[in-house]
Amino acid sequence: MYKGEEKLSITVVYEGVVTRARAEVKVTAADNGAKVRCDVINPATKKPISAHQTLSVKFSPWEVTGYVSPEAVEAGQEAVLTCETSSSLPASSISWQTDGEPLQGAISRRSPGMFGGTVTRSELVVVPTQEENGKVYSCEADNDMAASVITNITLNVLHGPVWVQTPPGTVQVVEGEELVLTAAAVANPGPISYSWWRGPSILEGVGVEGGQDGRVKILRMGRHQSGKYSVIAHGPSEDITALFNISVLYGPEEAVVAERVVVDEEGPATILCTAEGNPIPNVTWTREAEWDNSSRAALSTGVGEARIVVEWATQADTGLYTCVAANEISAAPPATTALVVTQPPVFVFAGEEGEWGRTRAAEGTSGRVECRVRAAPAPSFTWSTANSVELHNNKKYYIHVPQLVDRVAEWISVLVVRNITPADYGLYTCTAHNSRGSHASNYSLSPPIFPEVPLDVNVTQVSSSTAVVTWRHNRMGAPAWGYTIRYRTIGKENQVLVFSGPLVFLRNRLTFKSNGQ
After folding, report:
1. Domains along the chain with CATH numbers
2. DSSP annotation string for 25-58
3. Which end of the chain is more exposed for a tag (fewer CB within 10 A), N or C?
4. Helices (H) and strands (E) in the chain — how many of each?
5. 20 neighbors 52 (Cβ within 8 angstroms)
6. Measured between alpha carbons, how far is 411 from 439 in angstroms, rounded to an integer?
7. What is the model's pLDDT at position 246?
8. DSSP-assigned beta bridge partners for residue 497
């Protein structure tokens, strides 16, 4: 038995008058169409008897090749992807996919191949974008005979720079902190360099590090650096630009208010507070309640500014108003405005009850007579003696410039009488005058007096070693500066213990221990 000219190894089986011969042949694609001949001979034949058979071998493609034309394609231009199988029988079919997704639209052609098989060729037209540079397409050939064969085609898309990463549209940074900005782009071919800009000026110099590699560091941000910025990616043939804003956050440094606002009674008034910051600060007006300094009710609020509007001013509106401005970064120091409703002078008395309007000073010293009024606008003061002689600055008298003592409407004028003699004791008249009216009040300059004997002296608690003494100040005399307590043990008349000290230490009550003697 022969395959072509190759003699095959056979196995012969005799069954009576029948002889059978078998040969096993491992065929390849090249054996398709090969002739197999079997020659039979015995003593009765003069020459061999031959039988012939043609082999029909089915085979799968052993490879598939692929390529793209042109090899490098400009973004937006057509590229033809081609896959071609080796010969196969039956003919192979070709399928396309990318990123796991099947593709349609390929055109296939077939032509005769080796060993009586068929070559299949498939073409797929694509129009790649610049983002598809490096994208992989797969083509698979299969004729259901064995495992399919696959090849991959990678696109080489020529394009200018394309952004991969840019700063966000608005970059926020707290004043004083450093800021790092990053950008990245790709191009085919490369390389890419970067430049950073603020408006029309390139970002470089002191306080700026890096930049050309796509990463720039600004060491310390200030509010003046807020604004429009850009980064440019420079490719071999073209550039691209990304725009963004930098917003430097900072707290308000001050709340801007008027120091004083004066308004006529029953007239309108507006007090305004403004503040700058990023983000724009919240502004709040408050006023301390006279009966509770810890309580502050918000009178007006706003963003960037707040105003208090008084439509019908009364004396009750006179006072200090506080403005506070704050945002998420910090708060400005509180600012205060005095709202003053005009009024004629009204005298204010200070000091201990019973001594109002009275000043005491010894002969040969200087006496200080104070005159206090509430008035708006600012009053003028005149001083005169009991016989209506107006006083002026000289060697004997000195009148201080009036001072605003409570930042609102309380004014003080001070008359100093030098080198006091008995003739200087008596009444002095202080007259305060403004556009709303005038008022006069008498003040006395008197010689000093001595404290009177304390009242209600009692020993309230007594033990074997301690005693508590209490007493009450006698208001008929001068205010006491201190007290002395003498303690004598019964039976020891000559032994006296003395306890003394200023009023601030004794407080009208003394506890002491006896030494037992």
Report:
1. 2-54 (no CATH), 64-155 (2.60.40.10), 160-249 (2.60.40.10), 256-341 (2.60.40.10), 344-446 (2.60.40.10), 455-513 (no CATH)
2. ----GGGTT-EEEEEE--TT-SS-EEEEEE----
3. C
4. 1, 47
5. no
6. 13
7. 97
8. 487
Is there a contact between 336 and 358 (Cβ–Cβ < 8 Å)? no
Question: Which structure tokens are listed for 484?
Answer: 């002395």
Residue 98's pLDDT is 95
CA dihedral 256, 262, 265, 271 (to 10 degrees): -10
What is the distance between the alpha carbons of residues 300 and 308, in angstroms, rounded to a whole number? 6
pTM for the whole structure? 0.65
Rounded distance between C-alpha atoms, residue 464 and residue 475, angstroms: 34
Rounded CA-CA distance 262/508 in Å is 46
Predicted local confidence at residue 505, as pLDDT: 42
For residue 147, count other CB atoms closer than 10 A to its CB. 7
DSSP secondary-structure letter at 281? Answer: P
Is 27 exposed, middle or buried (CB count within 10 Å of its CB: 0-12, 13-18, 19+)? Answer: middle
Altogether, the residues listed in the chain come to a count of: 517
Tokens of 248: 């430097």
Among 311, 310, 312, 318, residue whose Cα is nearest residue 375: 318
Residues of the chain with pLDDT under 50: 291-292, 294, 351-355, 503-507, 514-517
Residue 279 DSSP code:
S
Question: What pLDDT does residue 354 have?
Answer: 45
How deeply is 255 buried, as exposed, middle or buried, from its count of CB atoms within 10 A (0-12, 13-18, 19+)? buried
pLDDT at position 462 is: 77
Q: Which two tokens stand for residue 254?
A: 């001050």
